Amino acid sequence: MEETMVTSAKVSKPRRTKRVQISSLLASAPMAIVAIGVFVVCVGYSVVLSFTKSRLFPNFNWVGLDQYERLWGTSRWIVSVENLFLYGVLFIALCLVSGFFMAVFLDQKVRFESGFRTLFLYPYAMSLVVTGLVWQWMMEPSLGLQNVVQRMGWESFEFAPLVDPQYAIYGVLIAAVWQSSGLVMALMLAGLRGIDGEIWKAARVDGIPTWKTYFFIVLPMMRPVMITSVVLLAVGVVRVYDLIVAQTGGGPGMSTEMPAKFVIDHITARGNVGLGMAAATMMLLPVLLVIGPWIYREYVRPTKH
Amino acid sequence: MEQIQLTGPHGPKPKKTTVSRLGVYAFLFSAAVFFCIPLYVMLITSLKGMPEIRLGELFSLPGDPSFAAWVKAWGEACSGVECNGIQTGFWNSVKITIPSVAISIILGSINGYALSFWRFKGSNLLFGLLLFGAFVPFQVVIFPLIIFLREVGLYGSLTGIILIHTIFGMPIMTLLFRNYFSSLPDELFKAARVDGANFWQIFFQIMMPLSIPVTVVAVILQTTGIWNDYLLGLIFAGRENLPMTVQLNNIVATTFGVREYNVNMAATILTALVPLAIYLLSGKYFVRGIAAGAVKG
């Protein structure tokens, strides 16, 4: 490792003195250790363990794809994956739509704009544990929102998703959208502010209604912002763990189980590292397939500057 | 929607109140209410006594507001068998957050500086790997890291959790500083090189004074991120050093007899207080931090 870096340094910047090269390499050592030691070796080790019969401690009794077979035969895993898809798609869609509308409405030269902005974004500063616990309390069946509305006279009103396996995931979804949609608002508002004023003038001269300008001219121009938002939200989706643990604990039954929780439970309490690592590898695959080529294209290949 | 005539952001400020303006404000106010409700409920619940909470008036203001629940949450609430309140978690979080933030920012700024001005062949690849680390699910690396920390005797220690936060903070910190340094004019660096300044001289005397704004962003990003962390603290900090978020969840999950919702909500507010204060004080820097991870340099 050290060796290849020294030789390669000579190639790219030939006029540097030896002393300086060493300090720049020394300075990069922690980065190299983390990048390779953690994000290559550790990831690789996890993948290797997924092919073994490891229980509480790692061992190397090779079992081929047995763990994957077992994984996809485990109903809790299947439910977790289904939950992740349902939750992920709805979460990203709702955050994008509400974030976009909040940004557009805030962009109308309104009074108290910074006040609104502060209110829309503050949940994003709070931890998911806090988010989960607050919404758990508000969704409490006998003392929460449901009770308040019923007492106001709407007796048949039902809003206690967390105790109903069929709707629990939507209860989590509401909390998550509450926490994260401000993020999209902030990014989109910055995007809107970056759009050339000439476009608005041109649209007005042509008599295009404002809402049409937003949907057909401005929105397509905001593609980079949308991609950014989706990437940030998607990373959050795959990692969703704290919110589930705080708000539902995965229940009722298995109705809000998620892959991230499946992995953690199997490497800790359940002591089944092989199966847990097979699940972790399955989580890694989509990230690798989507993010890998993007990182390579954007950052690794070009040698600009 | 079709009827609403929205004014473009660069147009003149409308003088008269039109129907569309009312629509805009109606939307914004209802959104604001939705965002406020949980904070409001959390606050008033924490100021009520349990008999009042059992009446089931979630939104009504406390008849006799008292901070008794806050006092109990801070010093007496039970998590498991221990009843020392959430204060131990608070101080643990302080002990974890401060060194983790400092170390990850120092390393991130050095990395970003090296990647911007001292490229070596393979530095792009290294950065690509690090960036991949920003997206990789924690679950894929946690188990090997547990094994590693156990081997070196740091598993379940303060040093261990600080090391873990430094590792997981490195991708985003490096990206933040790399993007910032890449935006600086190249001449700055070249002139210093011509004057014979070396790697560290340029870093300390030129780059560090210039990077105060981005450092503020980094401090905000890391402090809120590490304070709000649950998973890493739960796994790596050990029973003696559990951060506030973990202790909060333990307090709420502990059910001896009656659930004390007022104490739970007081503990929840206390946990949210630090990041909320940072958010309110930092303003635009917080927003910059959010976008930082995604902006390409």
UniProtKB/TrEMBL annotation, chain B:
GO terms for cellular component: plasma membrane. Keywords: Membrane, Transmembrane, Transmembrane helix, Transport. CDD domains: TM_PBP2. It is found in: Cell membrane. It is a multi-pass membrane protein. Belongs to the binding-protein-dependent transport system permease family. This is Carbohydrate ABC transporter membrane protein 2, CUT1 family. The lineage of its organism: Bacteria, Pseudomonadati, Pseudomonadota, Gammaproteobacteria, Oceanospirillales.
